[in-house]
Amino acid sequence: MSRNTNVKRTIVEAIPFHTVQPNTKLDFTLYEKVGEEFKKIIAAGSLYTSHMRRKLEEAGTAELYVNIAEKDNYGRYMDEQMKLIARSATPLQDKAVSIYDGAGKFMESLFEDPESREYADKIRTLSATTVDMVLAHQFATQALMDAASYEYFTHTHSVDVAVFATGFGKHLGMNRDELVKLGYSAMMHDVGKSRVPQEIINKKGRLTPEEFEEAQRHATYGYFILRSLNEEDKDILGAKNTTAAAIRSAARATRFPSLPRSSA
Predict the structure, then answer these.
(1) How far apart are CA 134 and CA 143, in angstroms?
(2) What is the per-residue pLDDT across 80-119, written as a single tens digit (0 to 9) for each?
(3) Going from the N-terminus, what domains does the chain have, and what CATH number goes with each?
């Protein structure tokens, strides 16, 4: 691995380790964190090999990094890889980790730019990919649940809700189109929190009445974000306000592990 180029933290962004697949050519430069420095693994246009990945795994690497200027290249790469992974012979648990981490990264990007049609479309496509995996594999929902992050962030919470929703929808006998719509609705149910001040979202302890009132507006903010994305499906627009509560009830009824609590 080439490690002769160091960069500053301000120009790189963390990405989940499992979203970069071995033996694929990357059109973005890949970095790792060593101590307090960020060192280049390979340059854009190079092949990320199984040997490189194994060495990083042996070193306990949990995150990789990309140059912020190449973030869009990484997004396009990840979008294509998620589709390929679902159809590949990759072991189910590895598929689940890659898809879960990919969904979390897409949601994080959407929360940074909630009116991005590009990332909304990626999330809709990923919902379909997830549904296809859940329908094809008996234990796919459990594998995705095992991949879940229990360190609460709004964007990972949205992915958790989508996993539970899709699995429970399958249990209820919903068809593929219904499951894709349900998964996308679940992914988007908290997008309005991107408009709520982060000091309220991340506050430790009890909210003041004014803060609580602002937090409750996230459902309305989310509705208008979806409308700005030209969403016209009344099922999606209507489901937005109730998805989290409904899935928590479903989770309790089927003895699924509890979702991290939120103000949804």
Answers:
(1) 10
(2) 888 787 777 778 888 888 888 888 888 888 888 888 888 8
(3) 1-70 (no CATH), 89-253 (1.10.3210.10)
